[in-house]
């Protein structure tokens, strides 16, 4: 195996492991909010956008809701996508009691990306890498 092939294989493995790590991290984060978070009804009030790689634009929902104590909160949803979120769309959120700006959208537009997607991508990349390595060497 040449040096170039080894570098590509290592880079491929790192990307696969990062996908797996992102999936596991998302599972842990979501599980913590599920166990100790507080659910509330909210509304998407706008979409915040950012430029990404190769000039792509990504949108994240800004959600307005009231805490159990009646405080009005504006929080940025963790999920991004390529199109704007619908304004005034109702959502069910879960927030951290000690820091209500940390939210997860449980139901409605902007519902969290499944950790399964990250895990699937990581496993697929690893399977392709192992298959390629077995075929080459």
From TrEMBL:
Ordered alphabetically, the record's keywords are: Membrane, Transmembrane, Transmembrane helix
Membrane-crossing residues?
116-136
Name under which the protein is recorded: DUF3592 domain-containing protein
Organism name: Hamadaea flava
């Amino acid at each position: 195996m040449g040096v170039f092939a080894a570098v590509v294989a290592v880079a491929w493995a790192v990307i696969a492991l990062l996908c797996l790590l992102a999936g596991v991290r998302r599972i842990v984060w979501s599980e913590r909010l599920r166990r100790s978070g507080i659910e509330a009804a909210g509304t998407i009030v706008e979409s915040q956008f950012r430029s990404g790689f190769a000039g792509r634009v990504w949108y994240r929902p800004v959600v307005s809701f009231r805490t159990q104590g009646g405080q009005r909160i504006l929080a940025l949803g963790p999920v991004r996508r390529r199109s704007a979120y619908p304004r005034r769309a109702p959502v069910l959120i879960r927030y951290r009691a000690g820091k209500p700006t940390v939210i997860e959208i449980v139901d409605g537009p902007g519902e969290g990306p499944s950790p399964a997607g990250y895990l699937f991508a990581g496993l697929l990349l690893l399977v392709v890498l192992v298959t390629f390595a077995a075929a080459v060497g």
